[in-house]
TrEMBL record:
Membrane is among the record's keywords: yes
Gene3D superfamilies named among the record's database cross-references: P-loop containing nucleotide triphosphate hydrolases
Pfam short name (any one): ABC_tran
A GO term, aspect molecular function: ATP binding
Keyword tags: ATP-binding, Cell membrane, Membrane, Nucleotide-binding, Repeat, Sugar transport, Translocase, Transport
Name of this chain's protein: Simple sugar transport system ATP-binding protein
Residue ranges of every copy of the ABC transporter domain listed in the record: 3-239, 255-499
Main location per the UniProt record: membrane
Topology class, membrane: Peripheral membrane protein
InterPro entries with a match to the protein in the record: AAA+_ATPase, ABC_carbohydrate_import_ATPase, ABC_transporter-like_ATP-bd, ABC_transporter-like_CS, P-loop_NTPase
Compartments, record wording: Cell membrane
């Protein structure tokens, strides 16, 4: 299929998400759509898949203009999409999920599960996807769930397959498996539109790269282009991709966790007998695929989630039963993984958000009265120090970009003396330029003697920041390794291998992304 997008434009109120975008997808090519979070990549693909309608522009397939006003219309035209957040029913089997929306029946109107099982096996064998049609979706790993989504698209005879940030929840070895599958699709003549902001993946798989910035196509690049060149196209200026930091000068243990166990809302053991130390003046990164207990661990450290067993000490003082406010006042700073839900109050001003955990004390209050002049003065200082881009400090923080919202959260937490900084997914949804700034600021906090615990699913971020790496899998820490540990070994540990097993396996079977370091 030859697919062409001509002048596609889409606005949401005053925001122009896509501005007259032209794009050509050739048959049997892997075309990477590269851009920062919020650049307009997903909006463009949602128009191609019929989830959104363009304000203007055309979609042309094999030389003919077509109207795609729904996902079913996209499917009829041979376009399939695997969304960043999977569209699967957890309590259904793989085959039942494949049947949804295209149910086939036999005598008496009974669903023909046998035919669905056969179709799953056929596609699974043809592309080496290795999926059990009878497995419940809730019981299979996220990497296999993604294969189910791909099989759903293939079952509809997709000739163009859109993959929207497909590696966000995968380990490096699962990413390698996905890359192998994508190459098979290419050889079979299927075109792939690969949406991502991860430079290593683009270089590993792309035939052609189109870069989108602020809703516009700013150019195309070859896979041979350096990561620095690609990053500059994404941001519009030169970006330092490597954090310049000295070796850590670690001091005494500030955070001591022993035998920590947390039971989640469903009664499952989310954190299982975890031991962890973080010293003053070092960054420990907690690595792992999302959903392996990292969220529950960080929330337990802040007193946001009850502890079933074990102990937490800060600076030698047991805080296991302390409340959240008491822990903050004891010197813990917290950057939550979901800033919009837990990190700020969107309707409050920038100035107000910068004192959310400080307004009770001097100089920001006198008795029960707030001292607005001091709050505004503090805001102006933080805005300058952290390069927070806002037209006014009185604007609601919800009006800022994602990167600037994250700067507000970090600025607030670092505006007081800390013993421990817990930063969970500190650059999620943040542009490359803001990532550069945030990383430098976190390293500076380490150099000031603060103990820092970073939680991240991004191996590039872990490699940039960590002095030591603790790998978490199914609620347990499977190993604590040095910052120089190869990506392949980390990926295997993220899938449950011990350090020794990972060393052997990585040597014998290196991954595509690991070989690019």
């Amino acid at each position: 299929m030859h697919l062409e997008l001509s002048g596609l434009t889409k606005s949401f109120g005053s925001l122009v998400a896509n501005d007259s975008i032209d794009l050509v997808i050739e048959p049997g090519e892997i075309h990477c759509l590269l851009g920062e979070n919020g650049a307009g990549k997903s909006t463009l693909m949602n128009m191609l898949y019929g989830l959104l309608q363009p304000d203007s522009g055309e979609i042309i397939i094999n030389g003919e203009k077509v109207v795609i006003d729904s996902p079913s219309a996209a499917i009829r035209h041979g376009i399939g999409m695997v969304h960043q957040h999977f569209m699967l029913v957890p309590v259904f089997t793989v085959a039942e999920n494949i049947m949804l929306g295209r149910e086939q029946t036999r005598g008496g109107g009974v669903l023909d599960r046998k035919k669905a099982y056969a179709r799953v096996r056929e596609l699974s064998d043809q592309y080496g996807l290795h999926v059990d049609p009878g497995a419940l979706v809730e019981d299979i790993p996220v990497g296999v769930q993604q294969r189910v989504e791909i099989i759903k698209a293939l079952a509809n005879d997709a000739e163009v397959l859109i993959l929207d940030e497909p590696t966000a929840v995968l380990t490096p070895s699962e990413i390698d498996d996905l890359i192998a599958v994508m190459r098979q699709f290419k050889e079979a003549g299927t075109s792939i539109v690969f949406i991502t902001h991860k430079l290593k993946e683009v270089k590993a798989i792309a035939d052609k790269i189109t870069v989108i910035r602020r809703g516009k196509v700013v150019g195309q690049a070859e896979p041979s282009a350096s990561e620095e060149e690609l990053a500059e196209m994404m941001v519009g200026r030169a970006v330092e991709l490597v954090v310049d930091k000295q070796e850590a000068d670690a001091g005494d243990v500030q955070l001591e966790v022993r035998g920590l166990t947390v039971i989640d809302e469903r009664g499952h053991t989310a954190v299982d007998n975890v031991d962890l130390d973080v010293r003053a003046g070092e960054i420990v990164a907690l690595a792992g695929v999302q959903g392996n207990g990292q969220t529950e661990l960080t929330e337990a450290l802040l007193g946001l989630t009850p502890v079933a067993a074990g102990a937490i000490s800060l600076g030698g003082k047991n805080i296991t039963r302390a409340g959240t406010r008491e822990r903050l006042e004891a010197g813990i700073g917290y950057v939550p993984e979901d800033r919009a839900h837990d990190g700020f109050v969107g309707s409050f001003s920038v100035a107000e958000n910068l004192v959310l955990d400080l307004f009770r004390r001097a100089p920001f209050s006198a008795g029960v009265a707030l001292r607005t002049g001091e709050i505004e003065r503090n805001c102006e200082e933080r805005v300058e120090e952290f390069d927070i881009r806002t037209q006014s400090i009185t604007l609601p923080v919800s009006s800022l970009s994602g990167g600037n919202q994250q700067k507000v959260v970090l600025a607030r937490e670092l505006s007081r003396s800390l013993k421990l900084l817990v930063a969970s997914q500190p650059t999620r949804g943040v542009d490359v330029g803001s990532i550069e700034f945030l990383h430098k600021r976190i390293v500076r906090e380490r150099d000031n003697g603060t103990a820092v615990l970073i939680v991240s699913t991004e191996l590039d971020e872990i490699a940039a920041l960590a002095d030591r790496i603790a790998v978490m899998y199914r609620g347990r820490i499977v190993g604590i390794v040095g910052a120089d540990t190869p990506r392949d070994e980390l990926g295997l540990m993220m899938a449950g291998a011990s350090k020794q097993e990972a060393e052997v396996e990585a040597t014998e079977h290196p991954t595509t992304l690991g070989s690019m370091e």
